[in-house]
Amino acid sequence: MISRMKRTPDKLAQLCLVALLGLAITGCKKPDGGSGSAGDGAIKIGEYASLTGNEAAFGRSSHRGTELAIEELNKAGGVLGKKLQLLTEDDQSKEGEASTVVTKLISRDNVVAVLGEVASGRSLEAGPICQQNKVPMVSPSSTNPRVTQVGDYIFRVCFLDSFQGDALARFAINTLKAKKIAIMSDVAAPYSVGLAEFFRQSFTKRGGTVVSEQKYSSRDTDFNAQLTAVKTTAPDAIFVPGYYQEAGLIIRQARQLGINVPLFGGDGWEAPELVQIAKESAEGCYYTTHYSPETQTPEVQNFVKAYRAKNNNETPDAMAALGYDSALVLVDAMKRAGSTEGPKVRDALAATRDFKGVTGLTTIDQNRDATKPATVITIKGGKFEYVDTIQPEK
Ligand code: PHE
User: What is the CATH number of the domain that holds 211?
Assistant: First the structure.
C-alpha cells in the first residue's frame, strides 16, 4: 500500500516532465528558431538526426556543425537571393523513426533537400523516401557503400567503409604489427556488419589471420561471454567495428577480464562518451575517423574557433565537421544550379569537384560518393590524440 501511494506522485512528476520535455522539443523545432530565422520565402532545407537516444552524441554534433554552416551562409547573404532555413527533426536513434520524420519534412514542410543521417542504418531507411520524391539527400557521414546505391538522388561527403576497412587493416599490420586479430561486430547495425567484412577481407588478403569473430547487438551491455571466447584465442589486438556506447563497455569489460592487447575501431567510436564509459581502460586504444581538430589549415582552425564560440567552448568532432561540410556542399550545388529544383540540384551535386571544406576536398564520383583520407586517433591521458593520416591507395 505504502509503496503504491509513494509511486503515484512519482508517476505524476514523470508525466509532467514528459509533457514539459515535449513542449521544449516542439519549441526548439519551430521553423523560425535558431539558424532558421529566415522568414517567408526562405529556402527550406530538412535535416534528420539522432538528437536523443542511443547515438545522441552523433546527431547532436552533426546538427551543430550543420547549424553553424547555415548560419554563416545566411550571414554572407544566403543563396540565390534568399535566406536558408534549416528544419531539423529528431529520429531518436530509433528504427522506423527516420522514415517517419523524413516523410514529414518532404510532404508537410516541402523541403527542397535533406541532410542526414550519420548512422548508415538510418540513411538506408530514409534514403528511398528522398529518392522517390526526387529530393536530393546528402549524408554527412554514413560510410556503408549501400547508402548511395539507393538511387541517383542520394549523395555523401565522407569516405566509404570499403576504404575505412582497408585503412584499418593496413594500420593493424603496419603500426600494431598484429598478425592475429579477433573481431566483435554489432549484427544490428549495417555499418558494423559492413565494416567488419571489409576489414576481414583486407586483413586476410594482406596476410593476417582472423582468429575469432564474435557478435553482439546494439544496446547489449554484457560482453563477457564473447570476450571470454576471444581471450582463449590470444589475439594480438581486437577490432570492434561498432558505435561508442557498446564499444566503451567492451573496452572496459575486456580489461576487467585481464585482456591487455589494444582494441581498435572505426569512426563509430568518435564520441567523448567512449572515454567516459571505458575510463582508463581506453588508454592506448585506437580508431579511425574523418578529421582532426588539430589540423593547422585556416579552414579547420576557423571552423574550430567559430564552433567553440557558439557551443560552450566544445571542440567539434568529425560528425560536426562533416555536418558542416554537407551543408556547404549542398548550398554550393544550389548556387551552381541557379535553382532549388530537385533534378537541377541533383545534377549540380553530381558535378561537385574539389570543393574545399573542413574535411578536405570533396569530389563527387560516378557513384555519388566522396574519397577522403582517414585520420587515426589514439586515447592518451583520457584525451583523443592525432596519430596518423592514411591516404586512399591510387
Ligand atoms: N560512419 C558511421 C555509419 O555509417 C557513422 C559515423 C560517422 C560515426 C562519423 C561517427 C563519425 O554509421
Answer: 3.40.50.2300
